[in-house]
Amino acid sequence: MNLFTHVNATTIAEATAATAKAGTAPIAGGSDLLTYLRTMCSPNAPTNLVNLKTVVPSMAYIKEEGGFLKVGALTTLTAIANDSTTLAKYTALAQAALSVASPELRNQGTIGGNICQKPRCQYFRFDNDDFKCLRKDPAGTCFALTGVNTYHSVFGPLNGCVAALPSDIAPVLVAMNANIVTTVKTWKAADFFVVPNVADARREQINALAAGEIVTEIQIPTPATGSKSAYMKWSFRKSIDFPLVSAAVLTTVAGGSVTAASIVLGAVYGQPRVATGAQTALVGQAINATSATAAGTAAATGTTVLPTPGGTNSNSYKVQIIKVMVQKAVLATA
Amino acid sequence: MDTLNVVGNPAIHDQHSNLILLGKMDYACDRLPGRKLYSAFKSSSIAHGAVKSIDPAAALALPGVKAVITYKDCPVWSPNIFQWGQEVAGVVAIDAGTAARAALLIKVTYDVSKPVIDPDESMKPGASSVGVIQGKNTLIANYLTRGGGGEAGMAKADVTLETVQPWSTTYQHNTLETHSAVAEWAGDQVKVWCSSQSAFNGKWEVAAALNLPINHVHFFTHGTGCAHGDKNSSPFAVVAAVMSKAVGGQAVQVALTRRDNMLFNTRQFSVRSAIKLGAKKDGTFTGIDAEFWGDVGRNPMAPVDNAHFGLRTTYTCPDADFKVTRVVTNTPQRGFWRCVNDPPGAFNYDIAIDKLADKLGMDPFALRMKNLRAPDAPDQDPPNRVWGGNGVGLCFDKVYTSSGYQSKWHKPGTRVLADGRLHGIAITGHLDSHGYIVGSTRGALVTITADGKCLVNVGGGRGSEGGLTSCCIITAEALGMPPEDVVCGDWGNTDVALDGGMQAGSTFTASAGGAFYNAALDARAKLFAAAVNHSPFFSLKVTPDQLEAKNGFVYLKSDPSQRLSYKQVMAGTPPIAGYGTGWNATLRSRSVGGVAQGSVCNANGSAAACAELAVDTETGQVEILGYWNAVDTGRTIFKQGAIKEMLSGCELMIHQALFAGDVYDIPSGACISTQFNESMVPTAMDMKGERFNVYDLESDDAAGPYGAHGMGEPCVTNYSAIICAIFNATGKWVDPEKGACTPNKVLKALGKA
Question: What does the buried/exposed string (b/e) look like for A204-215 if buried means 16 or more CB atoms within 10 Å of the residue's CB?
């Protein structure tokens, strides 16, 4: 395991000051960060950790306030999945939280951590930094581009990397037009999940947070009357896995027709991918098998299957699964 | 079959499971806390070549580092590199983190050779040499011709099938505790605690590697964290002993990381085949021509030789050829595993049988039954032995009736469930190459103590559920004692027990059990000799042959009211030691079915499984709706253990069929599926235990103690039932692409990916 110091922050200001120092990172549930450190997979690993769980006032809460569902960054995924308000009105978020990993990891993992996890790629995560991938070293290579890429992007590389977004929460936040509040600013979710270029020191991130910037709260606008949301996740196993394809859908229906649709794909590209074609296909239609299938088909347009050695274990299946997940998620909002 | 009191009693628990459940089982790494050093490995970053230089200076300079050893110091390491991640050096330090960080600082340079990762490439003429066999990459393991050979059989056929099967999955089963060992020297004696399946194998291994007198090695194994063959050998015990020696004898712990475990350890073979089957129109086999290739990684001696065993022995066919070839690659070594070579072999030949059935327009189960060999028929191949007990027919019958197969089977791709998914069902089964008996080298010592109870020390390790308890059950039965009066004092301890052999190959219960059976009979005879000196037997002038024992009492056969408890007999009698060895595998221990005791026979386990499943054609996902696993135990000694073995067999078959598979980066040769989340062990949501149905069936094997033979491996073999059921559902064969039939590959077979 990488060697690191660990200090408990008592205030968010203290945490902010501490994490602004080079080689320092905040730690919440630690379910991703500690495995990253244990495997010594990166030369960029922090050497100092600042514990956010000890910050007062606590950042673990869920409340409706001012037209938003406000979720503290340290709220556990279990708490979100079990919250009655979230389940009833922000269904996709509760479903996404419930879909993460296993009960033990959901008890430990937080919503803030889920949107700040590191990329998930066998080369990036390989123990002892044996593969110098470009997310760790700008002089490196994307080994997955022509290597093992079964789990990876079907919409091409992002800044040269084909790893797919591993977060279940991220596509929901984009679909629901969430705000992500940090110690520096309030981000729109769509802007937050912009992966820095590999030349940037933040190249290992799946978001655009600046050094020392800490997520404190998630704000999700209360959906309009007639709105429903759903999150569908697909992976090889029925639990524990990271998503291989996911779809977050928010629809608003009036007079039997969709007046607004937000459809965002996860795990098929390096960041949440807004399926604009699918949204267009759905608006003005009643939600039924025909419109849902059309939305699914539209969501899967523009895909690019990655080359594979010997033609085995391709990621081509994702194209089919996008269609099905979008279709199912749309129908779930009927 | 004999009526028995203790054997098969469903109320008997594993004697040590409470230790595991309460967290009190002692594993190797639990030993010597506070006074041991820790270690980590430097492994190769190339898949093929040779070490040119190793510079440990930076590692040695790191505070806390005590020593660095290299291949020059360690007899189980080599400068010649045959796989990515091979061990070339190791660090000993004050803690595991320091050792791991120091290992990264060791600088190694190599002469690099071209690696061969793909077995198909390795087999091609002119392929680069893998480097482990002189001048070639393949080694014929065996070639067997029966009758006029396969070609003659095809000439007699009405219908022939010729099929080339794809490579089956290869994977490491990733035990919960990785390989681990703690070694400590005292003068010229070394103590080693190790997560080994075989304490005595470990003892010999350490002694041989370090050129030590055998009595200078003291080897102990208690908890193994599960072991299915890959802990039969104990190279890391040797490494720990070398490391300890390097730091003046202070205790050193070697515990593989998950990465190292996945890179170094043996795993299941990947097997492909070219199979021709010939049959009459009614399905009667006329000929088999089956050639198997096993990717053995860097281990040219890997035991893939019996890939054809089930096809060769389960069905009658007069003319046949069977051939197995080992193919080496620059990948981790294949080797002992839970049911080594039978599952991938069955994957190949069961698909071929189902393809022939499809061509004949037959129900594949009916085709199997048409050709199933009679249980009392001898092996068709030399030396043409009969089986001591052949229960494969019992197993087929059981899964057929209990699953309701007759009303559920349909032509491939023709039944749609109410939810739109496709329904599939299939049965496969086989006589297994495991379950044999290697008892002649097994020894057992039992002691009837002053309190009238029995102490046994079992020489074998605790590789899996039940072997130790089985030995106690056999002892109790043979002694006529209540099971709670037979206690296991210690196990896997080479200082206090006789060699119990390995707990592997499904051999332990029958092999070590035979030794305990004989030891118990020896002790019982001595007990009877002592009993006749006690009243009432003394006053009645009873001789030992007039006595019997049951439920903790010695009694007069002709008048059971005349009896003494064991405790009464032992009052004033010195402890009684009974000694026994197991018997040879090929000799019948009893006369069964009119065949004489002492005549030669085979002793093998067998099993059959039925898988019923649903395939979602939109997502490729397969849901197991029901799984029936019937296993011929010969005689079930430890009922609870047998049930758990069979249930775990269901899990392993689902794992192997639908989830498991190593993933290699071809250019580097690195196995990159090293982390636990990539091992794809199915979860409770992927396999619902309430859908498992397991049956222990008893063929009363004439070779084993009380009719037992091994069953731990036969019960994991028939994962082919799942593959065939997917075909029954979809009408398409899924190419597992050296892995499992994951949903992406099902979609590919359906033309949707």
Answer: bbbbbbeebbbb
Among B744, B746, B747, B750, the residue to mutate for chain A (most A Cβ within 10 A): B744
Q: Start-end ranges of CATH 3.90.1170.50 in chain B?
A: 31-113+173-264
Token pair, residue B470, equals 């089985």
Cα nearest neighbour of B677 on chain A:
A241
Q: Domain B31-113+173-264 carries which CATH code?
A: 3.90.1170.50
CA angle B186–B191–B194, rounded 5-degree value? 155
- For residue B693, list its beta bridge partners: B628
CB B605 within 8 A of CB B713: yes
Write out the CATH class of domain B114-172+266-372. Answer: alpha beta
CB contact under 8 A, B678 and A122: yes
pLDDT tens per residue, range B459-508 = 988 866 688 999 999 999 999 999 999 999 999 999 999 998 888 888 89
Return the CATH architecture of domain B17-22+438-581. 2-Layer Sandwich (3.30)
Rounded Cα gap, residues B664 and B407, in angstroms = 43
Q: Tell me, what amino acid is at B217? A: V
Q: What is the pLDDT of residues A190-213, one digit of tens each?
A: 999 999 999 999 999 999 999 999
- Give B112 to chain A, closest Cα distance, Å: 17
Q: Is A236 on the interface with B (CB under 8 A)?
A: yes
Angle at CA of residue B167, ends B166 and B168, nearest 5°: 115
End-to-end CA, chain B: 55
**DSSP annotation of A119:** P
Q: Give me the amino acid identity at B243.
A: M
Determine phi and psi for B727, rounding to 5 degrees: -65, -40
Residue B457 one-letter amino acid: N
Contact at CB, B738 and A321, closer than 8 angstroms: no
Query: For every residue of B498-529, which 3-state class applies, written as one string?
Result: CCCCCCCCCCHHHHHHHHHHHHHHHHHHHHHH
Average pLDDT, chain B: 95
Nearest Cα neighbor of B724 from B433, B430, B506, B431 is B430
Residues of A in contact with B752 (CB under 8 A): 317, 320
For B100, the closest of A40, A123, A316 (CB atoms) is A40
Type of residue numbered B493 = N
Neighbours of A57 (CB within 10 A): 9
A127-147 CB burial, b ≥16 within 10 A, e <16 = bbbbbebbbbbeebebbbbeb
Query: For residue A44, what pLDDT band results from cuts at 50, 70 and 90?
Result: very high
Listed in order, the ranges of chain B carrying CATH 3.30.365.10 are 17-22+438-581, 114-172+266-372
Token pair of B37 as six digits: 């050093």
Question: What is the residue type of B205?
Answer: E
pLDDT tens digits for range B707-749: 999 999 999 999 999 999 999 999 999 999 889 999 999 999 9
DSSP 3-state assignment of B626?
Answer: strand
Cα B480 to Cα A193, B280, B489, B510, B635, distances in angstroms: 73, 55, 19, 19, 18
Residue B515 C-alpha, separation from nearest chain A C-alpha, in angstroms: 45
Q: For residues B608 and B399, is the Cβ–Cβ distance under 8 A?
A: yes
Q: Residue type for A96, please?
A: A
Nearest CA to B548 out of B528, B567, B533 is that of: B528
Answer whether B674 sits within 8 Å of A309, measured CB to CB: no
Return the pLDDT at A38. Answer: 95
For every residue of B309-360, DSSP letters joined together read: HHHHHHB--SEEEEEEEEEE-SSPPB---TT-SHHHHHHHHHHHHHHHHHHH
Contact check, Cβ <8 Å, B743/A143: no
CA–CA distance from B117 to each of B300, B302, B381, B460, B578 (Å)?
Answer: 14, 17, 35, 37, 53
